[in-house]
């Protein structure tokens, strides 16, 4: 019997989390893990109680979707919360904020500079990503001596295929 390696397993969880994203332009998922136990998940989208991005909740994303704003522009106008930030806030909201020290963050994209700062502040030991992000905080993460691992997306394919094939 084969089982996925831990990094593959938790990245699959991040891939599932991104299915809940309500952002018009990019779907990202994140999972926080401590001692091989998932303690929080997050996906990008508008804050709770705010109209979903795809329903017009974020004017910046609407403008980007219409081609009026280029990727990476006017990010300060975006109302969406990043997946990594949502996962970190879930830890605070549900009382396990101290659990982030020495934990691992799995994210389908490399964290932006803001999420990288949060990752450093909450004490992550490792960050595992699937893809680069144009405005990522890689230099900051490296300066903080956090291990940054880029997982090959092809490692997930056999497991996603197995999920699809299973009854």
Question: How would you write the strand order of the largest sheet?
Answer: 2-1-3-4-5
* Estimated share of beta-strand residues: 5-15%
Instruction: Show unreliable segments.
Output: none
CA-CA gap between termini: 17 Å
- Give the % helix: 25-40%
Nearest-integer average pLDDT: 92
How would you classify the helix and strand content by structural class? alpha/beta
What value does the Rg take, in angstroms? 16 Å
Quaternary structure annotation: single chain
What is the helix/strand order?
Answer: HEEHHEHEHEH
How many strand elements? 5
Describe the global form. globular
Biggest sheet overview: 5 strands, mixed
User: What is the overall number of helices?
Assistant: 6
Chain-wise SSE layout:
Layout: H1 6-17, E1 29-34, E2 37-43, H2 59-65, H3 83-93, E3 104-107, H4 113-121, E4 126-129, H5 138-143, E5 147-150, H6 157-165
Parallel strand pairs: 3-4, 4-5
Antiparallel strand pairs: 1-2, 1-3
């Amino acid at each position: 019997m084969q089982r996925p390696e831990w990094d593959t397993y938790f990245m699959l969880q991040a891939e599932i989390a991104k299915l809940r994203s309500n952002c018009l332009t990019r779907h990202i998922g994140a999972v926080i893990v401590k001692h091989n136990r998932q303690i929080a998940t997050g996906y990008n989208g508008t804050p709770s109680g705010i109209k979903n991005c795809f329903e017009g909740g974020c004017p910046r994303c609407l403008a980007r979707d219409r081609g009026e704003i280029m990727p990476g522009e006017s990010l300060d106008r975006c109302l969406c919360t990043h997946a990594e930030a949502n996962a970190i806030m879930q830890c605070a909201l549900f009382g396990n904020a101290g659990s982030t020290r020495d934990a691992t963050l799995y994210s389908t994209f490399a964290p932006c500079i803001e999420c990288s700062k949060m990752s450093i502040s909450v004490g992550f030991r490792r960050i595992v990503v699937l893809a680069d992000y144009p405005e990522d905080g890689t230099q900051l993460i490296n300066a903080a001596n956090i291990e940054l691992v880029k997982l090959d997306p092809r490692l997930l394919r056999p497991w996603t295929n197995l999920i699809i094939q299973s009854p």
